[in-house]
Amino acid sequence: MDSPEAKILIEQKQELIDQYLQGQEFNFLEKMTTRLDEYFYRVFEKSIAARKMVISGNPFAIIALGGYGRKEQCIHSDIDLLILFDKAIPPDVEAFVQELLYPLWDARFEVGYAVRSINECIKMSFERFDILTTVLDARFICGASLIYSEFMEKFRQQLSAKHLKPTLNYLYENGEKRLADFGDSSYLVSPDVKSGFGGLRDYHTLLWYAKIKSNIKTRRDLEYYGFLSHFEYENLEDALNYIWDVRNRLHYISQRKNDTLHFEHQAEVAGLMDYADTSGAPQVEVFLGELHEKMDFLKQIYQITFEDIVSTCRIKKETVVSRPTKTDGLVVKKRRLYFVNTVTIIQHPDLLLRIFLESGQTRIPLSIEARRVASEFRHLVDDEIRTDPACVKIFKRILGMSMWKFNVLNVMLSTGILPQFIPEFSSLVHKIQYNQYHLFPVDKHSIRCVQILNGFKYPDDTMMGSLYNSVFKEIRNKNVLLVAGLLHDIGKADPAKEHSRRGARIAGPVVDRLGFSPVEKEDILFLIENHLFLAKTATRRDIYDEETAVYTAHKIGKIRLLRMLFLITVADSKATGPKAWNDWTENLIKDLFFKTMSIIKTGELASKKTQRLIEKKKKDVLDLLRESWREEEVNRQLSAMSRRYLLYVSPQNIVEHINLFRNLGDREYIWQITKDNESDMRTVSICGKDKPGFYSKLAGVFFQNNIDIVGSQAYFLGDSYFLDIFNVRPPQDRLFEKEKWEKAGQDLSMALEDDHYLDNVLDKIPTEVTISSGSRPEDSQVRIDNETSSFFTIIEVLTYDFPGLLFAITNTLYRAGINVNVAMVATKVDQVIDVFYVRDIEGDQKIESEEKLNQIKNAIINRLPQMQSKEVMNEKN
Amino acid sequence: MKKIEAIIKPFKLDDVKEALSEIGIYGMTVTEVNGYGRQKGHKEIYRGAEYVVDFVPKIKLEIVVTDDRLDETVETIRSATNSGKIGDGKIFVLPVEEAIRVRTGERGDDAI
Predict the structure, then answer these.
(1) Engineered SS bond to B106: which of A506, A635, A747, B110, CB 3.0-4.6 Å?
(2) Residue A841 near residue A692, CB atoms below 8 Å
(3) Per-residue model confidence (pLDDT) at position B103
(4) What's the pLDDT band for A188 if we cut at 50, 70, 90?
(5) Of residues B58 and A274, which shows the higher confidence score?
């Protein structure tokens, strides 16, 4: 279809775009609207179909809706049209729509239209929120103006009669939903300049609110009707023009209606908007900084609107007169905080902090004037204020009030009071990290981190939410946590340096000024310096290895520090952006937290004392091996060894084991039998590649060869090697001791080859045992502890010694699919306490199922013989 | 052409990347995934509340190589991730029908 009218429109549009791009047209949106209006006039005037309908008694109005109705037409904005009839809709309308819209569609305009009667349209408006808002922006273009005015009148009537509150509720809920869907757009890597938080929708919401409440006609009325102050209105105009400009250029570049400023478009838009350094390269970070500032303002406007909507829905009467607050020198007017006058500020500069406390407590925002005043008088916050105990206390309370929906700390930042109170913070202000990973400038990021920490006060209904909440509740000194959260990135001003350590250095004087005790200061600086530690460890080390948790526990040392570090890690990652935080990362960090927690709580492997002991042992081993080994070789060996092993084995024995290990080569195992000089005992040390059941088979072979086990320990050496130590009594027949050991060695090889080689030995385990000590024996006990360690199920067996005891227990475990990773077996006279750290062979992890734990417990008990004392025997006889 | 999909432990990623770059393989797709296998999730108890993790965090690597480089690549990944323990992961090899470099339109081995 070749329409001359459309042709004119297309030419006009192109001309307009050209002028705009050359910087000669500053009023593109309204001009574009006018050109469209003119097109509709022309077509309407010439249309025969339209004339027919009017003559046959069906007059109608052509009405612009939505953005077109508001005269805010960007290059590729949709055109929303309503063709409105008084009552019935005549069939001829189809022909008219063809005449009117087909040429536009052909020319690739995005046109949406509806043909409705007045009542139909009103009914739908109150049923559907998206229709309601477009109707709020309705503007008459041409046709029967009476129909338009009748429609608007009816609409207003019904709105004020019965739909006011539901409509405002709609507006409120829609805002909440939008926030959930789009998030805080002003700091996303790809901000949505229309629908995101901080986008144009924020302004639309204000406009709709004003239209619903006071039937205002244009944006200008926002000030006249008192929705905005003069300053606010001027700032709004400024921000809108800027964002519209960005949006228009974005449409132009992407050649379609696109409102998301994608990463790859940012440099081009910056270039088009003349952000360039002297060499002509676009200054993207400067451009984004300014865009953020404007979007930030829209966000503030939205928050004011939001507040108003809430108060309109809830508060019946509005007080126009100012009323005093709890703080002298501050008043509330129309739900905004004001300074009484500027003279009081000069007399009491602490008001510059108190106003934020008042705002946080009452949830009444600072008026724009108060913000301006605070900003202008911020130089009054000097060293005296910074170190004044009362002011420091106020500041700490403000930190605790930094919340997601009402973040007073953000206002404190935007007025410049925060960087004035903590001058070290000013190096972070607007520090943008232009990459896909960091969504926020460092200053905002730090505040978000505090805000997220405060959010842990309230449990949400997720599993993780309740964990954060319960950890948060256990932290006694929240100020330590919050200040560390605020300052964790304080070292970021210099990107070249390692920011954590640098940050701890810079934070020192700040923490002093804030009056923290030496212990608190040490905690805060530790948290700053190590704020990346947990996240790094969780992703770069094997968290299923106990050594990782021991290493972490050793580094952190105290439970309170671990708790705080955990929450700061979570808050920091969450505040960075979705690339730094997801379920996957969350799980890794949480796991490391749990595992480290249990290591610190147990204290066995990571306490300071343990550390000292192990360090000393390492040194001793080094000294002992200096002759025959290179130092780095020994260190490598030592660092691969498990801490539990280093803790419990003497340096002399470690040396022997290292030598033993060196001779292992490709063999499955290697053993060494040494004679104890003092007591006539033998120590058998066995080292080999870890294999489930090995320990049990060893015990079985000793039993088979009548070698009496007095004590035993099993460890991993690290790198999937094990080391078992058996203290045994020598064979009774000393003459052939060597041969006896050789026989045992052969049996072990057979047992390793054939899993059932030792089955017949099982039958030799006694079913009844007589206790030599006089008193009545206690029942054997099996205790299972599944809480102390995150890595192992700990099984304790308390019983009396008998030949084959160790084999009886460990074989039962092995047959149940359980591997013994660590064992400590000790005999005292005839009583025995055996402790086993075990894991499921399948899955290589601790045993989770209650059922299985019970089965194991019963299996061990059943395997143990009946214990009887001599007296009982005598009675029987 | 073959596509190699390897499921590995997260902390092994750097080792694998390094080993692959030593044999001249730089391009790969890395995804954070959740595994359910012989190595099961577990539960932790904190202040009386149970926290259950029913999967194990893993990394998935995807690499497309020409047929003649397949064995070398698979072996490199295997030796970089092998600790002899459960949970070391798995490597899958799939045939690839065609590869096209979007920018130039090159096809087959040239596009890898």
Answers:
(1) B110
(2) yes
(3) 87
(4) low
(5) B58
Separation between Cα atoms, residue A280 and residue A670, nearest integer Å: 73
Chain B residue with CA closest to A689: the answer is B84
For tokens 């021991």, what's the residue?
A550
pLDDT of residue A306: 77
Residue A455, sorted as left (phi over 0), alpha (psi -120 to 50) or beta, turns out to be alpha
From chain A, the residues in CB contact with B10 under 8 A are 539, 588
Q: Which residue has the tokens 């809709």?
A: A89
CB pair distance less than 8 Å for B10 and A539: yes
Strands (E) located in A98-182? 111-117, 139-143
Residues in a beta bridge with B90: B7
For A542, which of B11, B47, B86 is closest by C-beta distance? Answer: B11
**ipTM (interface pTM):** 0.84
**Phi/psi-derived region of residue A421, left when phi > 0, alpha when psi is between -120 and 50, beta in every other case:** alpha
Q: How far is CA A354 from CA A384, A394, A510, A631, in A?
A: 15, 7, 20, 62
Task: Check whether A550 has a pLDDT greater than 70.
Answer: yes
Residue A179: the pLDDT is 72
Closest Cα in chain A, distance from residue B62 (Å)? 19
Distance from CA of A542 to the nearest CA of B (A): 6
DSSP A728: E
Judging by DSSP bridges, how do beta strands A768-771 and A866-869 pair with one another?
Answer: parallel
Name the DSSP letter for residue A515. T
Where exactly are the structural domains of chain B? 2-111
With 0-12 CB in 10 A as exposed, 13-18 as middle and 19+ as buried, what is A796?
A: middle
**Span B2-111: which CATH code?**
3.30.70.120
Tokens of A126: 């109150």
Q: Which of B44, B49, B83 is nearest residue A720 as measured by Cβ atoms?
A: B83
What residue has token string 């009946």? A866
Indicate the helix (H) or strand (E) that contains A408: helix A408-414
Output the 3-class SS for A259-295: CECCHHHHHHHHHHCCCECCCCCECHHHHHHHHHHHH
B44 has a chain A CB within 8 A of its CB: yes
pLDDT at residue A735 above 50?
A: yes
| Residue that is written with structure tokens 């739900």 in the block | A335
| Predicted local confidence at residue A271, as pLDDT | 85
Residue A315: the pLDDT is 46
Identify the band that residue A430 occupies on the pLDDT scale cut at 50, 70 and 90. Answer: low
Whether A201 shows a pLDDT value over 80: the answer reads yes
